[in-house]
TrEMBL record:
Native source organism of the sequence: Cylindrodendrum hubeiense
Site feature Important for catalytic activity, responsible for pKa modulation of the active site Glu and correct orientation of both the proton donor and substrate, where: D143
Name recorded for this polypeptide: Beta-xylosidase C-terminal Concanavalin A-like domain-containing protein
Pfam families referenced in this protein's UniProt entry, alphabetically: GH43_C2 (PF17851), Glyco_hydro_43 (PF04616)
Residues of the active site: D16, E196
GO biological process: carbohydrate metabolic process
Amino acid sequence: MATDPINPIIPGFAPDPSLVKVDGWYYLVNSTFHMFPGLPIYASRDLVSWTHISNAINRQNQLSLTKSDTKLGGLPHSGEVMLATGGLYAPTIRYHQGTFYVVCTNIVHPGGEDVSENFIVTTQDVWKGEWSDPTYFDFKGIDPSILFDGDKAYIQGSAAPGPLTKINLFEIDLSTGKKLSEERTIWGGTGGIYPEGPHLYKRNGWYYLMISEGGTHEGHMITMARSRDVWGPYDPCPNNPILTARDTNEYIQYTGHCDAFQDETGQWWGVCLGVRKDEGGRFIMGRETFLTRGNWDGEWLSFETVKSHIDNLPPKDGSAALSAVANVDYLYIRDANLGNYEIDKTSIALTTSPVDISHPETSPTFIGKRQRKLHGQSDATIRSVSDNWHATKLRSGIACYKDEHRYVRIFYDASDSAVVFELINNAKKLAQMERHILDKVPEELALRIEYTEKEYRLMYKVGGGLDENWICLGTTDTLNMTGPDFVGPVIGIFAVAETSGLKLDFQDFRVD
């Protein structure tokens, strides 16, 4: 069977990784922004094969994602549009005295402003996935991390988020969220914009502070400073940046937002985000999780350039290296009405709502999974199509979704018994549509999205039959779904109608 390179270790929508090693297991968490459940937890014994075992935000009553809409903002000098999504940003996972801690920020947009709600969730058994309700703490910033130092715990984070933010530190009672010290600025970085993603490590009597700078795209880099006192002053590493792909021709670009750790042999590693960016500027999978070897040169840490292959680690089988506990990897948009979904082994029943996937706050009837393969396909079949759906203006099908501004989909439109291809990208002012009117209402309609690094192909097939019966309704360059953003592609099935409460049966939904 064909093998894939080791990197990325978590492919697809997997930005802002953080990792902790406990009893021979590695546990990793990522950002999820506006998708629910939030903050997936992955486990591995060997850093090669990973299993999605739970989600730290997995109950509707833990927090709300309603105000996590995506804002469009211009980028200076490039003319591109940044898509800044609210929701769950840059978690950190740590372990102390029998308890796992995940600390994170929920960015909400009341009145269009960014407001940060910082919180801690905990569990004693990471495999059961029974995470606590959030304990909130007062911090006007993002990207919080935890340092345990003796009997004290410290939060370090990126204060007052913006291009010229600083890294702040304070002592905290993690059980109550109460600050036990004043909040102090400990470092402002080396001069790059957006100093963020801080992590503190204690080694040989030094406190090492590692952060990201330069923004999460072209200028992204990792820098480091150290101090004998946790409160500083922090002196920068003379070899900064200690990790970056900027100004290189590497295939893996935008590397940054790193967490450092040691394996069982004492070897140092970093998990970081990056993108697979081709010569045409496409990085359709978004920010993914990569692994790179770390080295201590004297008293400072550095990381090897992130590559698709890592020496002395085996290639991985692309079909088996990333698995998931049953149903734990399904995703919904924001505050889902979970009563609209019935999941069986081979089928999913969707109950319609009038909300489409273009809505910035309300959750549509949509269930999906992260696109994991750069080359693959996703399928779903609508069964028992009804003549009575005409008056409901039902639209239902399969979509590749990033946010309310960007999606490509193929669906059945009951108003005129048509199959429709639609591409929307408001950031690039793209809107394309193609319709095929069917001769009659189909009893069964199969829908498919095929994808490569360069292209999405959207296809349909009426009834059964051979693969040769597939009709390609539309294609689009993946550049049309690529741009400066935070999220990655989620492929899912949806059902929207003017009449709520219709039930549709989807068979054999799968995502590569």
